[in-house]
Amino acid sequence: MWIMAAEKAPTENRASSTAAITLLSYVGLFTGLILLTVMLAGGMAITTACLIITMPTLITSMILLMTKVKETKGTDLESVGRE
Fold first, then answer.
1. Angle of helix 46-68 relative to helix 14-41, nearest 10 degrees?
2. Cβ pair 53, 38 in contact under 8 A
3. Over the stretch 25-53, which tens digit does the pLDDT of each residue have?
4. What is the DSSP string of 6-45?
5. Phi first, then psi: what are they for 43, rounded to 5°?
6. Given 1, 8, 20, 66, which residue has the most CB atoms within 10 angstroms?
7. Which of these, 30, 49, 53, lies nearest to 40 by C-alpha position?
8. What is the largest CA-CA distance in the chain?
9. What pTM was estimated for this model as a whole?
10. Cβ partners under 8 Å of residue 22, min gap 6
11. pLDDT at 73 over 60
12. At a CB cut-off of 8 Å and minimum separation 6, what does 6 contact?
């Protein structure tokens, strides 16, 4: 995950993008752990709790993938850096 973020970022932003993805990963880890603990302590089944925690992220990721990521099939490598 961190290698992909660093490779996709421009050279002058690589450290910042790697730091941001690391920070977001740890914030998500902490938040998910707290939510899961609270849900399990409330008597919720672990499968239901995990689905409730992961579905918003999955749906958001799919929306971003479908709307923001462009198809690269047939793209000239020379024109990629100029866009």
1. 150
2. no
3. 899 899 999 999 999 999 999 999 999 99
4. HHHS-GGGHHHHHHHHHHHHHHHHHHHHHHHHHHHHTT--
5. 95, 10
6. 20
7. 49
8. 57
9. 0.61
10. 2
11. yes
12. 14, 17, 18
CA distances from 26 to 1, 11, 21, 38, 63 (A): 13, 24, 9, 18, 23
Token pair of 3, please? 């290698």
| Count of all residues that appear for the chain in the document | 83
Both structure tokens of 59? 């749906």
Distance CA 48, CA 54 (A): 10
Structure-token pair, residue 76? 């000239």
